[in-house]
Amino acid sequence: MKLLxxxxxxARGALAALADRRNAAxxxxxxxxxxxxxxxxxGGDPVLLRLRARLDGIPSQVPLRIPEVELRLAWESxxxxxxxxxxxxxxxxxAFAARQLPRNFDLKPVPGVTTGQRVLPIxxxxxxxxxxxxxxxxxxxxxxxxxxxxxxxxxxxxxxRPAKETLAAAAMLGIxxxxxxxxxxxxxxxxxxxxxxxxxxxxxxxGNAWVTAAKxxxxxxxxxxxxxxxTEVLVASETGDPAAIAxxxxxxxxxxxxxxxxxxxxxxxxxxxxxVETKRRAASNKIAAAALAKNGFAxxxxxxxxxxxxxxxxxxxxxxxxxxxDLAWVRNAGSVFxxxxxxxxxxxxxxxxxxxxxxxxxxxxxxxxxxxxxxRLVTVQEYTRxxxxxLGPLAICLADAEGLTGHADAIRxxxxx
Length: 417
Known about the structure:
Mean pLDDT: 96
Helix content: 40-55%
Number of strands: 14
CATH superfamily of the largest domain: Nitrogenase molybdenum iron protein domain
Low-confidence stretches: none
Shape: globular
Distance between the termini: 73 Å
CATH class of the largest domain: Alpha Beta
Radius of gyration: 25 Å
Number of domains: 3
Strand content: 15-25%
CATH architecture of the largest domain: 3-Layer(aba) Sandwich
Number of helices: 16
Strand order of the largest sheet: 1-11-10-9-12-13
C-alpha cells in the first residue's frame, strides 16, 4: 500500500484519480464485445454454441440447459454444513429483501379523487453468475432471491462453468432454468433470445469486462442492474484495530488484481500500523498483493472533516466506520459496516443485505441490488364527477398555459366547467 499525506502532491493526484475513477477495463473490449453481441443476435443458437466452445472452452455437444437432475444431485452431494450455511444465508437475504420491497397504497388527495400505486414484478429476469477465479454460490443467492421476493415468475441463471456449490444453491432455491454459458455471448442470449434461451426483461449480476461491456451494449434493449467494476473497500477509522482493518482490506482485495483498497485516518501511527499489517497479511495472497500494490492507499488526512469529505467524494462500494454515530456523515457508499466486529465478508455471504453493490463512484446515485430492481411501480388514478369538478378547472388552466387545447377539451368533456 502507498502511505500518503493528503496535502502531498502525490496524494492530490491519487485522490483525483480515485474520485473520478472509471471501470476502463470493459471499455477496452467494447468493440469486440459488440461483434459477439451482434453475432448472437443475428445467428442464435448455432453462433452461441460456437462462441461458447471457443471462448468458454465448452464442447458444442454439451447441452446449453443444465438438467434438473444435475442440479438436484449437486444439492444432495453437498456437505451438510455447506447446505446449512446456504440455507441460513438464503433466509437472511430473503428477509432483508422482503423488507426493502415497496408496498401498494391508495390516497385521496381531494374528495372524489383516488390515486395509488401498484407494485408489479417484471415478467422475467436473467441472473449472471461468474465462475472465473472462484466459485460464487453467494452471488446466485444475492441475485435470485431478490427476484423471487419481487414475485418474478421466470428466473433464468447463466454461468459458464458453475461449481457444484452454485448448482446446489440453484437447486435449493428451486431454479430449473440454468444455462451453461458465459461472457458477452450469454448476455446477448439473455437480452435478445435464441431458440434455446428465450429473452428476459432484465439482466442482473456482476461479471468480467466482457460481461460488463455486453450489458452496456444491450442496456437500451434489455434492462440491466448496473455496470459492475472491480471490488472496492474503504475503511475510515480513528480508533480501529490495525489487524481487523488490514484483514478487511486484504479480504476485498483478493477478489481482483484491479480491486481498490483504501484506509483513511487522521492518525499517522494507525496508518503506519495498518500498512505494515496489510503487507504481512497479503504476503501469501498473490491477487490481494497485486491489488494493494496497484490500488492500495493509506491516506493521512489533516482533519476529521477532510477524511469524511474524502469518503463521500470517493463513494466506495464497501465502507467501514468506527461507530453508528458515523452514519450521520456518510452520504455515498454501497454498504456500510459499523465497528470493530463487523467484518466486511460477513456481508458478502450471510447477513442479508445484498453484496451486488455499486462501484466506480456509482454509489453517488444508487444503492445495491434489491427487490426494487425487479418490480415496476404502476400508478393508478380514479375520478368521480365531483373530483373532476374540483380539480378539472385547475388542470384546464395549466393546459391552456401550455397551449395544449386537446388536453383542456378532454377535461371539459368530463364536465369540469
